[in-house]
Design goal:
Elements: H1 17-32, H2 39-49, H3 52-74, H4 82-116, E1 131-132, E2 138-139, H5 170-189
Antiparallel strand pairs: 1-2
């Protein structure tokens, strides 16, 4: 509250529990569906980043997954050759691993860029001086931000630091003075035959 103004702190890391859970879910979808849902993490990425490349990749992954599913449905119980099996497994692997890898790398980079990018706000508009009307009289034009704040100008120099004073206990000094006074009073009132120490 008091003292020098502090620089704004960067926002916290966006890797919260909810974001991590979403990443795990969208990573598991293509792997558990043998690549048929390889477009799902790319769809989330395209929605988050809003980049054209991500939309195109999502569309291509959807077409490849649909084609793979249609081919598997059409050849259902037929015996496939070794070449067809290798091509099918290759397409499944590329769809599953490729979409998951691209999704994780691109989303983590996207959120990292958002976290480290400095917030750039347009500079506030303030009139440079008074405006003058047609008759030559000064016209005050209000600033859209209101009057300038007199407390945010150039900071005042800090007062010089003084050496710390030894702690003085005024109560102890008062008690000591009262005891001395009481001691003097007792000496005066003591009988003359008694020992004075």
């Amino acid at each position: 509250m008091y003292g020098h103004p502090q620089a704004p702190q960067p926002p916290q890391s966006p890797a919260s529990g909810g974001l991590i859970a979403l990443r795990v879910l969208f990573t598991a979808l293509p792997l558990l569906s043998c690549g048929f849902l390889g477009w799902a993490p790319l769809l989330r990425l395209a929605i988050v980043t809003r980049r054209t490349l991500d939309w195109v990749l999502c569309g291509l992954a959807f077409l490849a997954g649909s084609a793979l599913f249609a081919y598997a449905a059409a050849t259902g119980e037929e015996e496939s050759s070794t070449l067809e099996a290798f091509v099918g497994v290759g397409v499944i692997t590329v769809l599953a691993a490729g979409s998951v890898t691209y999704y994780l790398v691109a989303e983590i980079r996207h959120f990292e860029r958002r976290r480290t990018a400095p917030e750039q706000a347009p500079p506030p508009y303030r009139p440079l001086g008074p405006s003058y009307g047609a008759d030559g009289s000064a016209v005050t034009v209000p600033s859209p931000l209101g009057p300038p704040n007199p407390y945010t100008g150039t900071p005042l120099p800090e007062p010089p630091v003084q050496a710390p004073q030894p702690p003085v206990a005024p109560r102890i000094e008062q008690v000591r003075a009262e005891l001395d006074e009481l001691s003097d009073l007792l000496r005066k009132n003591a009988p003359e035959g008694e020992d004075r120490r």
